[in-house]
Amino acid sequence: xxxxxxxxxxxxxxxxxxxxxxxxxxxxxxxxxxxxxxxxxxxxxxxxxxxxxxxxxxxxxxxxxxxxxxxxxxxxxxxxxxxxxxxxxxxxxxxxxxxxxxxxxxxxxxxxxxxxxxxxxxxxxxxxxxxxxxxxxxxxxxxxxxxxxxxxxxxxxxxxxxxxxxxxxxxxxxxxxxxxxxxxxxxxxxxxxxxxxxxxxxxxxxxxxxxxxxxxxxxxxxxxxxxxxxxxxxxxxx
Length: 238
Prior knowledge:
Layout lengths: L5 E2 L10 E2 L5 H10 L14 H9 L4 H4 L3 E6 L2 E6 L6 E5 L18 E5 L1 H6 L1 H12 L4 H13 L11 E4 L16 E7 L16 E5 L4 E7 L15
Parallel strand pairs: 3-5
Antiparallel strand pairs: 1-2, 3-4, 5-6, 6-7, 7-8, 8-10, 9-10
Helix pairs in contact: 5-6
């Protein structure tokens, strides 16, 4: 997959992304203004907690997610609904997992099941959980960025542990409006700008990299063949 065909539109933690071709100036402007502000909180919530737990678990194969802690979104932030046994944490990420300059940062339709491994659960997920609380408290994009940056500077958020990664393999994912499902994939989190050292975004490489200076990591995305339920994903040439 060529780098110029990849446009990262969301996550970081998360992270939601789109694969697209050339976009007209008018279309780009429409995307930027489609979600200018946060929608009412109810639009981000899932009324059935059991359904949210089930959706979160689809982020990874059952052999991983069945033993994971599961968090669900409430009005003040994410809370633990199911205690885990294997150190993994599964959540359904909402739109503010994206960088604050993402056009769909406030898109209430986004539902991105993701399962963090223990290292990422301890040291990367806390950024997203903090952004969630700030968003639900009514902070602006600028305020969210300023407060998370200050927390990172003051080491109030943990330093990223080596080996941090996550699964995003849900067939039910809604990553963004343009490419709802994209591909099942794994994401690896590396401190700083590490695109070149991983050989990402070059011809023939299976690794797609997105440098995320707001969260001070590079996100390495590796598409995989199957969804978490074992069914085939889209062709990797798609």
